[in-house]
Amino acid sequence: MPELPDLEVFKGNLKKHLVGETLLAIEPVHPRNVIPAAGPVLEQFVGKALADIERDGKELLFLFPEGKFFAVHLMLNGGLQLCAEPAQAAAVKYRIASFRFQELILVVSDPGGLCKVRFLPQLTKVPDAFSPAFSQEYLADRLARNPLMNIKAFLIDQKMVKGIGNAYADEILWESRISPLSLCGKLPPEAVARLHAAVAGVLREAIASIRREAPEIISGEIRSFLKVHQPRRKESPTGHAIRVQKVASKTTYFTDEQILY
C-alpha cells in the first residue's frame, strides 16, 4: 500500500505534468469505485483547469477552482499512469477511472478493485502526520486517551493520525526504540518525545530516499532503504536480529533493542 512518503513523491511528479491543464473528460470505468459515478457533480469539473495537487493522509487531492476537488485513495494495490493517447489509456488493465486532460490522460487502476475516487468528499479533521496539528501535545493527549491500545495499532489507525501504514509504523517505532508490543498509556514523556520526532524524521528521510531511487515515480512502492521492515534483512543497522511477529493483525518487524513499555 502506498503510504505518506510514496504519495508525497507521486504528488510532486504529477504536479509537473498536470497542474494548469484543463480537464476535458472523466470516464468512470467502475462506477462502484467512483463516488458519484455520474451527474452534475462530475460536470462541475469538466472544462476547468487543475489548480494544484495536495495530499491528505493516504489520499491524493486534485484541486480545482472554487474549492472543488476530488480525492484518489489507492488502497492496497492501486496505481496511477499517465498516457499520451486514448488507445494507450484504454489498454491499461484494471482501470477504475480515466481523466483526460489537454495533453495527457491520468488513469487510475487497481487489480484488487478497492481503489476509490471521491468527488467533493468530506475530509476528516484527524491531523495528517505532516500537519502542524500533529504536535507532541496532540500525540501525548491521544496516547493518554487510549491507554490500553497497542502502540503499533495506534500509529496505523487513521482516526489517530493520517498517512502512516504498516511499513513506516515499524520504521518509526524502531527509530524511537519503542517496542510495537507497548501500550499507549505506558509510554513515559521521553518516549512520547522520541516517537513524535521519529514520525517526521523517518517519513522525510523516506521521501528523500524514494526521490533518489525513482525520481519520476507516480505509482508503486520503493522499500529497499527501510531499516527493519524488510523481509530480506536479518539484522537492523545496529546489528540486532530482526524479529517478525503479528502485531495489531499486521506482520511486524522489530528488534529486542526496542523498549517494551
TrEMBL record:
InterPro entries: FPG_cat (IPR012319), FPG_N (IPR035937), H2TH_FPG (IPR015886), Ribosomal_uS13-like_H2TH (IPR010979). It comes from Hydrogenispora ethanolica. GO terms for molecular function: 8-oxo-7,8-dihydroguanine DNA N-glycosylase activity; damaged DNA binding; DNA-(apurinic or apyrimidinic site) endonuclease activity; lyase activity; zinc ion binding. Belongs to the FPG family. Residues 2-102 form the Formamidopyrimidine-DNA glycosylase catalytic domain. It catalyses: Hydrolysis of DNA containing ring-opened 7-methylguanine residues, releasing 2,6-diamino-4-hydroxy-5-(N-methyl)formamidopyrimidine. The keyword DNA damage applies. This is Formamidopyrimidine-DNA glycosylase. One of its GO terms (biological process) is base-excision repair. Pfam families: Fapy_DNA_glyco, H2TH. PANTHER family: FORMAMIDOPYRIMIDINE-DNA GLYCOSYLASE.
